[in-house]
Design goal:
InterPro entries: AIG2-like_dom, GGACT, GGCT-like, GGCT-like_sf. With 154 residues, this protein is an alpha+beta fold. It is 20% helix and 29% strand. It is built from four helices and seven strands, in the order αββββαββααβ. The chain starts with a helix and ends with a strand.
C-alpha cells in the first residue's frame, strides 16, 4: 500500500469494520485471510483506502487474483463510532467497498482448519506466531492488515 500511496494510486481513508460478521483466519505462514462467509465469525476491523483503477489492477496482480489465491468482492464497512446506524449502504458512516477474500475453492477448508474461530483484527500478535521454515525466505514478514477499497478516479 505504501508504494501505491507514494505514486498517488491510493489514499488512506480511515479505520473501518465490516457491517456483518466474517471469518478472519490465519492461513499458511500466518498470512491473514478474510473468508467470504457472511454471518460466520465476527466483525472485522481493517483499513479503508481509496484506490485508483490502475492501483486496483496492481493489487489484483499482487494478491494473485488470476492464480486463484484471492477474489476481490464487495463488502459493506462502517466507521466504528457506536452511533447505532442500521448498516445499510449509504447510511451515515456506512460505505460499500471491496475486499480481498480467500478464493472460494479453499475458504471453507481454511475455516474448518481454524476451528471455525476467527479474529477481529490481524495484528503484530498474530504475525509473531509465524514459525520460520527452512523452505521460506527468513526475511519475509506477513504483517498485512486487512484492507477495504473504494474506487477513486485515475
Amino acid at each position: 500500500m505504501q508504494d501505491l500511496m507514494r505514486t498517488g494510486d491510493a489514499t488512506f481513508v480511515s479505520t473501518y469494520r465490516t457491517g456483518e460478521n466474517y471469518p478472519l483466519v490465519c492461513g499458511p505462514y500466518r498470512v491473514p485471510f478474510l473468508l467470504n462467509m457472511a454471518g460466520s465469525g465476527q466483525p472485522v476491523t481493517g483499513e479503508l483506502y481509496a484506490v485508483s483503477v490502475s492501483g486496483l489492477a496492481r493489487l489484483d496482480e499482487l494478491k494473485g487474483i488470476s492464480r486463484g489465491h484471492y477474489e476481490r468482492l464487495s463488502i459493506t464497512v462502517e466507521l466504528d463510532n457506536g452511533d447505532g446506524d442500521d448498516g445499510s449502504c449509504g447510511g451515515e458512516g456506512v460505505t460499500c467497498a471491496e475486499a480481498y477474500y480467500a478464493h472460494r475453492s479453499y475458504a471453507a477448508e481454511m475455516w474448518k482448519r481454524n476451528g471455525m474461530k476467527g479474529l477481529t483484527v490481524y495484528s503484530e500478535k498474530e504475525a509473531e506466531g509465524y514459525v520460520k521454515r527452512k523452505d521460506r525466505p527468513h526475511n519475509l514478514t506477513f504483517l498485512d492488515h486487512i484492507q477495504f477499497f473504494l474506487h477513486s478516479k485515475d
